[in-house]
Amino acid sequence: MADKSSSHAYWQANVRIILISLAIWFICSFGMGIILRPALKGISVGGADLGFWMAQNGSIYVFLVLIFAYAARMNKLDREHGVEE
User: Fold this and answer.
1) Domain boundaries in the chain?
2) Rounded CA gap, 82 and 9, in Å?
3) Is the CB of residue 37 less than 8 Å from the CB of residue 51?
4) Which of 18, 27, 61, 80 is in Cβ range 3.0-4.6 Å of 31 for a Cys bridge?
C-alpha cells in the first residue's frame, strides 16, 4: 500500500463499514427500542413486546453480530489492500 490513492481508498472503505454498522446499531437500539416501541407493542417475543425486548436484549445481540461482521469484513478489506497481519 505504497501510493496515496490506495491508502485513501482503504480508509474510505473502512469509514463506510463503520458508518453502516453504526446506522444498523442505531436503528436496532434507539429506533426499535425507543422510537418504534409503541408500534411494536403487538408483537410478542419471550413474553414481552418486541420494542421492550429490543431495548433490553435485542440491541445487545445485534451489537455482538456487528462485532463479528465488522471483523470479518475488515479482514477481507485488509487482504484486498495488502495490509493483513
Assistant:
1) 21-81
2) 12
3) yes
4) 27
